[in-house]
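agent: user wants the full assembly modeled, not chains individually. Plan: 1) parse entity lines 2) check alphabet per entity 3) run joint structure prediction 4) return tokens. Steps 1-2 passed, three entities, 311 residues total. Proceeding.
--- entities ---
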Amino acid sequence: MKVKLGYVSLSLSLPPFKTLNYTNYQKLADKGLDKLDQVIIYNFHNLREILKYNYANEVFFYRLNHHLIPLATHPKVTFDYIKKYQKHWLEIGILIKKYQIRTDTHPDQYCVLNSPSKETVKSSIEILKYNQNIFKAMKIDGKVILHIGGKYSSKEEAIKRFISNFKKLDKSLQNIIMLENDDKVFNVKDVLEVCEELKIPMVLDYHHYICNNENEDIRDYLPRILNTWKGKLIPKMHFSSPKSIKEKRSHSEYINSADFIDFLEILKKYTKEVDIMLECKAKDEALFRLIREIKYKTNYKFINQTTFILQ
DNA sequence: ACGCGTCAAGTACTC
DNA sequence: GAGTACTTGACGCGT
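--- prediction returned ---
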């Protein structure tokens, strides 16, 4: 099995992205849009640096920070974040393609497609379109990873609403969405069934599976999960370690390498290839530490810094 | 330079 | 009912 590892959003070796929230934007009055422009230009620069850093360190799997363009989907702030920055988008897109970095996005908790509130669904669709727009502007095949959403007292109804709202989306939007099991409500079985019905890929989050399961054996589900990727893309999964036994839902700074290796040893019976996104507080440092430990503990054959093969 | 309150938005949980 | 966690913690203000 060939395994490629990735990390999320920020490198600890590089500066963070800048933001501008609505309150501060308003305080700036007519200078608000100028400030926003400065932040956006800075973030483009920062993202280019991160991509170069990834390439230099042979990281080929990366999740974009979705606050690259602050206030992009705010209902009261309208500005052109595509055409005006076309040159920047293309530059970023060219880097991503040149470096062959698999890139995805993961909206935050406000993107809830199955909400009973029409307004919430509407703004969630706006968030999805933002993601679609930026992928288009970069001319890359990015994907958005979503959760099913809230439970609202009935899981069944909540799932039905998700499916119904999903089917109402433009086909082009449907095509970029993948679903991930969450740590509280929608477990592996729930999400798998939805993915099978909608014929979209399922991103298995192993940490969420540990937090939220009905004592099912993951081995029983892996063939079906991997089947949702057949003929589409290399399967993608998420892995992280719990902060502590007490705070098991929180992400730890680093990956527990023994758990990770155990997981790989299970997984290798089911797929020839997988891309695994590590979700750790220590970001790329967690990735590099995990690699050091894997090299020490196993005889996996490394193709490059972050890609290896296990028999 | 640093600490603290705040931030557009949803949902679910604890106290 | 208020506070908090989720997440990508960053910004601005007061000291």
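agent: reporting back. The two ends of chain A are 6 Å apart (CA to CA). Residues 19, 21-24, 71, 73-76, 108-112, 115, 117, 119-120, 123-124, 127, 149-152, 184-185 of chain A lie near DNA strand B (CB under 10 Å from a C1').
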